Amino acid sequence: MAIEPSPAIAALIRALEALPGYGPRSAQRAAFFLLAPESQKKLQALREALDGAMHVRRCRLCRTWCENELCAVCSDATRDRSLICVVESVQDQMALDASLSWPGLYFVLSGRLSPLDNAGPGEIGLPELAERIELGLREDGLREVVVATSYTPEGDATAYYLMSMVKKRWPDLRITRLSRGLPSGLEIEYTDLASIAGAVEDRRGL
Amino acid sequence: MAIEPSPAIAALIRALEALPGYGPRSAQRAAFFLLAPESQKKLQALREALDGAMHVRRCRLCRTWCENELCAVCSDATRDRSLICVVESVQDQMALDASLSWPGLYFVLSGRLSPLDNAGPGEIGLPELAERIELGLREDGLREVVVATSYTPEGDATAYYLMSMVKKRWPDLRITRLSRGLPSGLEIEYTDLASIAGAVEDRRGL
Protein backbone atom coordinates (compact mmCIF):
# COMPACT_ATOMS: atom_id res chain seq x y z
CA MET A 1 0.00 0.00 0.00
CA ALA A 2 3.06 2.23 -0.31
CA ILE A 3 2.63 5.43 -2.33
CA GLU A 4 3.23 5.10 -6.05
CA PRO A 5 4.43 8.21 -7.85
CA SER A 6 1.55 9.76 -9.80
CA PRO A 7 1.34 8.67 -13.47
CA ALA A 8 3.06 11.80 -14.82
CA ILE A 9 5.92 11.44 -12.36
CA ALA A 10 6.22 7.70 -13.02
CA ALA A 11 6.36 8.38 -16.77
CA LEU A 12 9.10 10.96 -16.23
CA ILE A 13 11.14 8.54 -14.10
CA ARG A 14 10.77 5.80 -16.74
CA ALA A 15 11.77 8.15 -19.55
CA LEU A 16 14.84 9.36 -17.67
CA GLU A 17 15.79 5.79 -16.82
CA ALA A 18 16.41 5.19 -20.53
CA LEU A 19 19.24 7.74 -20.54
CA PRO A 20 22.78 6.33 -20.45
CA GLY A 21 24.24 6.26 -16.96
CA TYR A 22 20.86 6.39 -15.26
CA GLY A 23 19.27 3.60 -13.23
CA PRO A 24 16.00 3.55 -11.29
CA ARG A 25 17.38 5.50 -8.32
CA SER A 26 19.22 8.18 -10.26
CA ALA A 27 16.30 8.57 -12.67
CA GLN A 28 14.00 9.16 -9.72
CA ARG A 29 16.44 11.67 -8.32
CA ALA A 30 16.59 13.47 -11.67
CA ALA A 31 12.79 13.48 -11.95
CA PHE A 32 12.35 15.04 -8.52
CA PHE A 33 15.11 17.49 -9.36
CA LEU A 34 13.26 18.57 -12.50
CA LEU A 35 9.89 18.77 -10.71
CA ALA A 36 11.18 21.08 -7.97
CA PRO A 37 9.87 24.64 -8.47
CA GLU A 38 13.40 26.07 -8.64
CA SER A 39 14.23 23.81 -11.61
CA GLN A 40 11.39 25.06 -13.77
CA LYS A 41 13.74 26.83 -16.20
CA LYS A 42 15.81 23.68 -16.58
CA LEU A 43 12.74 21.56 -17.22
CA GLN A 44 11.61 24.09 -19.81
CA ALA A 45 15.06 24.20 -21.44
CA LEU A 46 15.14 20.41 -21.69
CA ARG A 47 11.65 20.34 -23.22
CA GLU A 48 12.62 22.89 -25.82
CA ALA A 49 15.92 21.15 -26.55
CA LEU A 50 14.09 17.89 -27.18
CA ASP A 51 11.68 19.67 -29.48
CA GLY A 52 14.67 21.12 -31.29
CA ALA A 53 16.25 17.66 -31.51
CA MET A 54 13.30 16.60 -33.66
CA HIS A 55 14.61 18.93 -36.38
CA VAL A 56 18.07 17.41 -36.42
CA ARG A 57 18.70 15.54 -39.65
CA ARG A 58 21.62 14.26 -41.67
CA CYS A 59 23.84 16.42 -43.84
CA ARG A 60 23.16 15.62 -47.50
CA LEU A 61 26.87 15.18 -48.24
CA CYS A 62 28.54 13.70 -45.16
CA ARG A 63 25.54 12.40 -43.18
CA THR A 64 26.61 14.04 -39.94
CA TRP A 65 23.83 15.48 -37.76
CA CYS A 66 22.85 19.06 -38.41
CA GLU A 67 19.80 21.25 -38.90
CA ASN A 68 20.40 22.38 -42.46
CA GLU A 69 20.78 20.60 -45.77
CA LEU A 70 24.56 20.90 -45.48
CA CYS A 71 26.57 20.83 -42.27
CA ALA A 72 29.09 23.45 -41.21
CA VAL A 73 32.04 21.41 -42.48
CA CYS A 74 30.58 20.52 -45.88
CA SER A 75 29.67 24.16 -46.49
CA ASP A 76 33.04 25.48 -45.27
CA ALA A 77 34.96 26.88 -48.26
CA THR A 78 38.32 26.60 -46.45
CA ARG A 79 38.15 22.79 -46.22
CA ASP A 80 40.08 20.70 -48.73
CA ARG A 81 37.27 19.03 -50.69
CA SER A 82 39.61 16.53 -52.33
CA LEU A 83 40.02 14.65 -49.03
CA ILE A 84 37.31 12.61 -47.31
CA CYS A 85 37.74 10.97 -43.93
CA VAL A 86 35.34 8.10 -43.21
CA VAL A 87 34.35 7.85 -39.53
CA GLU A 88 32.07 5.48 -37.65
CA SER A 89 30.00 8.06 -35.81
CA VAL A 90 29.34 11.75 -35.24
CA GLN A 91 31.16 11.41 -31.91
CA ASP A 92 34.28 10.08 -33.65
CA GLN A 93 34.02 12.90 -36.18
CA MET A 94 33.93 15.50 -33.41
CA ALA A 95 36.86 13.95 -31.56
CA LEU A 96 38.88 13.81 -34.75
CA ASP A 97 38.06 17.37 -35.70
CA ALA A 98 38.88 18.60 -32.20
CA SER A 99 42.43 17.35 -32.79
CA LEU A 100 42.68 20.09 -35.48
CA SER A 101 44.65 17.67 -37.63
CA TRP A 102 42.23 17.04 -40.49
CA PRO A 103 41.93 19.67 -43.26
CA GLY A 104 39.37 17.80 -45.41
CA LEU A 105 35.75 16.71 -45.36
CA TYR A 106 34.14 13.76 -43.60
CA PHE A 107 31.73 10.95 -44.28
CA VAL A 108 29.89 9.59 -41.25
CA LEU A 109 28.93 5.91 -41.31
CA SER A 110 26.19 4.52 -39.06
CA GLY A 111 28.60 2.45 -37.00
CA ARG A 112 30.78 -0.34 -38.32
CA LEU A 113 30.35 -3.74 -39.90
CA SER A 114 29.19 -6.16 -37.25
CA PRO A 115 27.42 -9.28 -38.52
CA LEU A 116 26.38 -10.23 -34.98
CA ASP A 117 24.43 -6.96 -34.68
CA ASN A 118 23.00 -7.29 -38.21
CA ALA A 119 25.10 -4.34 -39.31
CA GLY A 120 26.04 -5.10 -42.91
CA PRO A 121 27.34 -2.75 -45.63
CA GLY A 122 23.83 -1.46 -46.38
CA GLU A 123 23.02 -0.79 -42.73
CA ILE A 124 26.10 1.30 -42.03
CA GLY A 125 25.73 3.43 -45.16
CA LEU A 126 28.36 2.09 -47.57
CA PRO A 127 26.09 2.54 -50.65
CA GLU A 128 25.76 6.23 -49.73
CA LEU A 129 29.54 6.42 -49.29
CA ALA A 130 30.00 4.99 -52.79
CA GLU A 131 27.69 7.68 -54.16
CA ARG A 132 29.58 10.33 -52.25
CA ILE A 133 32.88 9.11 -53.69
CA GLU A 134 31.44 9.21 -57.21
CA LEU A 135 30.25 12.76 -56.61
CA GLY A 136 33.61 13.76 -55.15
CA LEU A 137 35.48 12.33 -58.14
CA ARG A 138 33.11 14.11 -60.53
CA GLU A 139 32.97 17.51 -58.85
CA ASP A 140 35.76 18.03 -56.31
CA GLY A 141 38.74 16.19 -57.74
CA LEU A 142 38.63 13.72 -54.85
CA ARG A 143 42.11 12.24 -54.40
CA GLU A 144 42.15 10.43 -51.06
CA VAL A 145 39.77 8.55 -48.79
CA VAL A 146 41.04 8.09 -45.23
CA VAL A 147 39.48 5.33 -43.18
CA ALA A 148 39.24 6.38 -39.52
CA THR A 149 37.83 3.23 -37.96
CA SER A 150 39.18 2.00 -34.65
CA TYR A 151 41.71 -0.80 -34.30
CA THR A 152 39.18 -3.33 -33.08
CA PRO A 153 37.97 -6.47 -34.88
CA GLU A 154 34.92 -4.64 -36.25
CA GLY A 155 36.90 -1.53 -37.09
CA ASP A 156 39.45 -3.69 -38.92
CA ALA A 157 36.73 -5.51 -40.85
CA THR A 158 35.13 -2.23 -41.88
CA ALA A 159 38.47 -0.82 -43.02
CA TYR A 160 39.22 -3.98 -44.97
CA TYR A 161 35.81 -3.94 -46.65
CA LEU A 162 36.21 -0.27 -47.58
CA MET A 163 39.67 -0.90 -48.96
CA SER A 164 38.37 -3.73 -51.18
CA MET A 165 35.45 -1.62 -52.37
CA VAL A 166 37.63 1.36 -53.30
CA LYS A 167 40.42 -0.70 -54.90
CA LYS A 168 37.89 -2.58 -57.02
CA ARG A 169 35.76 0.30 -58.19
CA TRP A 170 38.22 3.19 -58.29
CA PRO A 171 41.69 1.64 -58.61
CA ASP A 172 43.33 5.06 -59.01
CA LEU A 173 41.84 6.57 -55.84
CA ARG A 174 44.22 6.64 -52.88
CA ILE A 175 42.82 4.94 -49.76
CA THR A 176 44.62 5.14 -46.39
CA ARG A 177 43.88 4.37 -42.77
CA LEU A 178 44.80 6.27 -39.59
CA SER A 179 48.07 4.88 -38.25
CA ARG A 180 48.19 2.65 -35.23
CA GLY A 181 50.83 3.06 -32.55
CA LEU A 182 51.77 4.39 -29.14
CA PRO A 183 49.50 7.05 -27.68
CA SER A 184 51.07 10.50 -27.28
CA GLY A 185 52.18 11.61 -23.83
CA LEU A 186 51.90 8.21 -22.18
CA GLU A 187 54.86 6.24 -20.87
CA ILE A 188 55.36 2.95 -22.70
CA GLU A 189 55.29 1.34 -19.25
CA TYR A 190 51.62 2.28 -18.91
CA THR A 191 50.58 1.59 -22.50
CA ASP A 192 48.37 -1.43 -23.13
CA LEU A 193 50.10 -4.41 -24.68
CA ALA A 194 48.02 -4.50 -27.86
CA SER A 195 49.01 -0.90 -28.64
CA ILE A 196 52.69 -1.70 -28.05
CA ALA A 197 52.42 -4.75 -30.30
CA GLY A 198 50.78 -2.59 -32.99
CA ALA A 199 53.52 0.02 -32.70
CA VAL A 200 56.20 -2.66 -33.10
CA GLU A 201 54.51 -4.19 -36.11
CA ASP A 202 53.92 -0.83 -37.82
CA ARG A 203 57.29 0.68 -36.84
CA ARG A 204 58.50 3.27 -39.31
CA GLY A 205 61.89 4.03 -40.82
CA LEU A 206 63.78 7.03 -39.48
CA MET B 1 38.23 25.59 -36.31
CA ALA B 2 37.04 22.30 -34.80
CA ILE B 3 33.42 21.35 -35.48
CA GLU B 4 30.92 22.77 -33.05
CA PRO B 5 27.75 20.72 -32.56
CA SER B 6 24.87 22.36 -34.43
CA PRO B 7 22.74 24.77 -32.33
CA ALA B 8 19.98 22.22 -31.65
CA ILE B 9 22.50 19.59 -30.55
CA ALA B 10 24.42 22.11 -28.44
CA ALA B 11 21.16 23.16 -26.74
CA LEU B 12 20.33 19.52 -26.02
CA ILE B 13 23.77 18.90 -24.51
CA ARG B 14 23.46 22.02 -22.34
CA ALA B 15 19.98 21.04 -21.16
CA LEU B 16 21.08 17.51 -20.27
CA GLU B 17 24.14 18.88 -18.48
CA ALA B 18 21.78 20.42 -15.92
CA LEU B 19 20.57 16.98 -14.83
CA PRO B 20 22.04 15.61 -11.61
CA GLY B 21 24.94 13.26 -12.20
CA TYR B 22 25.67 14.60 -15.67
CA GLY B 23 28.76 16.57 -16.69
CA PRO B 24 29.80 17.86 -20.11
CA ARG B 25 31.02 14.46 -21.34
CA SER B 26 28.10 12.38 -20.14
CA ALA B 27 25.60 14.99 -21.31
CA GLN B 28 27.13 14.84 -24.78
CA ARG B 29 26.95 11.07 -24.67
CA ALA B 30 23.29 11.21 -23.66
CA ALA B 31 22.51 13.74 -26.39
CA PHE B 32 24.07 11.55 -29.09
CA PHE B 33 22.28 8.57 -27.61
CA LEU B 34 18.93 10.37 -27.91
CA LEU B 35 19.68 11.61 -31.43
CA ALA B 36 20.48 8.14 -32.78
CA PRO B 37 17.67 6.86 -35.01
CA GLU B 38 17.14 3.79 -32.84
CA SER B 39 16.42 5.99 -29.79
CA GLN B 40 13.58 7.88 -31.41
CA LYS B 41 10.96 6.28 -29.18
CA LYS B 42 12.96 7.15 -26.08
CA LEU B 43 13.37 10.75 -27.20
CA GLN B 44 9.64 10.91 -27.84
CA ALA B 45 8.84 9.35 -24.46
CA LEU B 46 11.06 11.85 -22.67
CA ARG B 47 9.45 14.76 -24.54
CA GLU B 48 5.98 13.59 -23.59
CA ALA B 49 7.00 12.93 -19.99
CA LEU B 50 8.34 16.46 -19.69
CA ASP B 51 5.10 17.81 -21.13
CA GLY B 52 3.24 15.73 -18.56
CA ALA B 53 5.48 17.07 -15.81
CA MET B 54 4.10 20.54 -16.51
CA HIS B 55 0.75 19.34 -15.15
CA VAL B 56 2.18 18.14 -11.87
CA ARG B 57 0.98 20.31 -8.99
CA ARG B 58 0.69 20.12 -5.24
CA CYS B 59 -2.01 18.22 -3.37
CA ARG B 60 -4.39 20.68 -1.73
CA LEU B 61 -4.14 18.92 1.62
CA CYS B 62 -0.61 17.56 1.98
CA ARG B 63 1.29 19.49 -0.74
CA THR B 64 2.86 16.38 -2.22
CA TRP B 65 3.24 16.28 -6.01
CA CYS B 66 0.30 14.86 -7.94
CA GLU B 67 -1.87 15.59 -10.94
CA ASN B 68 -5.22 15.95 -9.19
CA GLU B 69 -6.56 18.23 -6.51
CA LEU B 70 -5.99 15.52 -3.91
CA CYS B 71 -3.19 12.96 -3.95
CA ALA B 72 -3.68 9.20 -3.66
CA VAL B 73 -2.92 9.20 0.08
CA CYS B 74 -5.16 12.12 1.03
CA SER B 75 -8.06 10.59 -0.90
CA ASP B 76 -7.47 7.09 0.50
CA ALA B 77 -10.36 6.20 2.85
CA THR B 78 -8.31 3.51 4.63
CA ARG B 79 -5.76 6.00 5.99
CA ASP B 80 -6.06 7.19 9.58
CA ARG B 81 -6.91 10.87 9.13
CA SER B 82 -6.23 11.70 12.77
CA LEU B 83 -2.47 11.29 12.24
CA ILE B 84 -0.28 13.62 10.19
CA CYS B 85 3.39 12.99 9.53
CA VAL B 86 5.41 16.07 8.54
CA VAL B 87 8.22 15.33 6.06
CA GLU B 88 10.82 17.52 4.38
CA SER B 89 10.29 16.37 0.81
CA VAL B 90 8.29 14.15 -1.51
CA GLN B 91 11.31 11.83 -1.65
CA ASP B 92 11.27 11.47 2.16
CA GLN B 93 7.53 10.84 2.01
CA MET B 94 7.98 8.05 -0.51
CA ALA B 95 10.80 6.42 1.45
CA LEU B 96 8.74 6.58 4.63
CA ASP B 97 5.66 5.18 2.98
CA ALA B 98 7.65 2.39 1.36
CA SER B 99 8.51 1.21 4.87
CA LEU B 100 4.79 0.39 5.26
CA SER B 101 4.96 1.61 8.84
CA TRP B 102 2.83 4.74 8.69
CA PRO B 103 -0.97 4.40 8.72
CA GLY B 104 -1.81 8.11 8.62
CA LEU B 105 -1.62 11.11 6.30
CA TYR B 106 1.35 13.31 5.44
CA PHE B 107 2.26 16.94 5.13
CA VAL B 108 5.15 17.73 2.81
CA LEU B 109 7.31 20.77 3.64
CA SER B 110 9.47 22.48 1.03
CA GLY B 111 12.70 21.42 2.71
CA ARG B 112 13.78 22.43 6.20
CA LEU B 113 14.66 25.56 8.08
CA SER B 114 18.04 26.77 6.91
CA PRO B 115 18.79 30.45 7.49
CA LEU B 116 21.92 30.26 5.32
CA ASP B 117 19.78 29.23 2.34
CA ASN B 118 17.10 31.83 3.15
CA ALA B 119 14.71 29.02 4.07
CA GLY B 120 12.58 30.44 6.88
CA PRO B 121 9.23 29.21 8.23
CA GLY B 122 7.32 30.91 5.40
CA GLU B 123 9.56 29.47 2.68
CA ILE B 124 9.23 25.87 3.79
CA GLY B 125 5.45 26.02 4.17
CA LEU B 126 4.84 26.23 7.93
CA PRO B 127 1.87 28.66 7.56
CA GLU B 128 0.22 26.08 5.29
CA LEU B 129 0.98 23.37 7.86
CA ALA B 130 -0.71 25.48 10.57
CA GLU B 131 -3.80 25.79 8.35
CA ARG B 132 -3.72 22.06 7.70
CA ILE B 133 -3.56 21.35 11.44
CA GLU B 134 -6.54 23.67 12.06
CA LEU B 135 -8.49 21.85 9.36
CA GLY B 136 -7.52 18.47 10.80
CA LEU B 137 -8.61 19.47 14.29
CA ARG B 138 -11.90 20.81 12.92
CA GLU B 139 -12.81 17.98 10.54
CA ASP B 140 -10.78 14.82 11.18
CA GLY B 141 -10.27 14.74 14.94
CA LEU B 142 -6.51 15.20 14.47
CA ARG B 143 -4.72 13.77 17.49
CA GLU B 144 -1.04 13.53 16.63
CA VAL B 145 1.53 15.31 14.49
CA VAL B 146 4.72 13.31 13.88
CA VAL B 147 7.79 15.24 12.83
CA ALA B 148 9.88 13.19 10.40
CA THR B 149 12.85 15.49 9.88
CA SER B 150 16.33 14.04 9.78
CA TYR B 151 18.74 14.13 12.70
CA THR B 152 20.90 16.87 11.24
CA PRO B 153 21.33 20.44 12.55
CA GLU B 154 18.68 21.75 10.13
CA GLY B 155 16.37 18.81 10.75
CA ASP B 156 16.73 19.36 14.50
CA ALA B 157 16.01 23.09 14.14
CA THR B 158 12.91 22.39 12.06
CA ALA B 159 11.64 19.83 14.59
CA TYR B 160 12.26 22.23 17.46
CA TYR B 161 10.46 25.07 15.67
CA LEU B 162 7.50 22.81 14.90
CA MET B 163 7.33 21.60 18.47
CA SER B 164 7.25 25.20 19.77
CA MET B 165 4.57 26.16 17.26
CA VAL B 166 2.32 23.24 18.13
CA LYS B 167 2.80 23.47 21.89
CA LYS B 168 2.02 27.19 21.82
CA ARG B 169 -1.03 27.15 19.57
CA TRP B 170 -2.57 23.75 20.31
CA PRO B 171 -1.28 22.69 23.74
CA ASP B 172 -3.52 19.59 23.73
CA LEU B 173 -2.27 18.24 20.40
CA ARG B 174 0.28 15.47 20.69
CA ILE B 175 3.52 16.14 18.81
CA THR B 176 6.22 13.46 18.42
CA ARG B 177 9.36 12.91 16.37
CA LEU B 178 10.72 9.77 14.70
CA SER B 179 13.09 8.05 17.10
CA ARG B 180 16.80 8.15 16.63
CA GLY B 181 18.98 5.08 17.15
CA LEU B 182 20.87 2.19 15.64
CA PRO B 183 19.98 1.29 12.06
CA SER B 184 18.33 -2.12 11.60
CA GLY B 185 20.42 -4.97 10.25
CA LEU B 186 23.78 -3.28 10.67
CA GLU B 187 26.46 -4.40 13.13
CA ILE B 188 27.22 -1.81 15.78
CA GLU B 189 30.85 -2.16 14.70
CA TYR B 190 29.98 -0.61 11.34
CA THR B 191 27.52 2.01 12.61
CA ASP B 192 28.62 5.64 12.53
CA LEU B 193 29.57 7.14 15.87
CA ALA B 194 26.89 9.84 15.90
CA SER B 195 24.18 7.18 15.52
CA ILE B 196 25.66 5.13 18.35
CA ALA B 197 25.84 8.25 20.56
CA GLY B 198 22.20 8.99 19.72
CA ALA B 199 21.16 5.44 20.56
CA VAL B 200 22.94 5.65 23.91
CA GLU B 201 21.37 8.99 24.76
CA ASP B 202 17.85 7.88 23.74
CA ARG B 203 18.16 4.34 25.19
CA ARG B 204 14.80 2.93 26.22
CA GLY B 205 13.64 0.95 29.25
CA LEU B 206 13.08 -2.78 28.72
Explain what you see.
Two copies of one chain form a homodimer. A four-stranded parallel β-sheet of chain A has the order 4-3-5-6. The longest helix of chain A is centred in the C-terminal third of the chain and has 17 residues, at 153-169. In chain A, helix 1 (7-17) crosses helix 2. Chain A has helices at 7-17, 24-35, 40-53, 90-98, 121-124, 126-139, 153-169, 193-201; strands at residues 57-58, 65-66, 80-87, 104-108, 144-148, 174-177. Chain A has 206 residues and is an alpha/beta fold. Helices cover 44% and strands 13% of the residues of chain A. The termini of chain A are far apart. In chain A, helix 4 links the parallel strand 3 (80-87) and strand 4 (104-108). Chains A and B meet through helix 1, helix 2, helix 3, strand 2 and helix 4 of A and helix 1, helix 2, helix 3, strand 2 and helix 4 of B.
Count of helical stretches of chain A:
8
Averaged pLDDT of chain A, please? 91
User: Count the strands of chain A?
Assistant: 6
Shape of chain A: globular
Strand content of chain A: 5-15%
Largest contact between protein chains? A-B, 63 and 62 residues
Helix percentage range of chain A: 40-55%
Output the radius of gyration of chain A: 22 Å
Largest sheet of chain A: 4 strands, parallel
As laid out across the biggest beta sheet of chain A, the strand order is 4-3-5-6
Uncertain segments of chain A are none
Helix/strand-derived class of chain A? alpha/beta
From the structure provided, what is the oligomeric state, counting identical versus distinct chains? homodimer
Distance between the termini of chain A: 75 Å
> H/E series of chain A, N to C?
HHHEEEHEHHEHEH
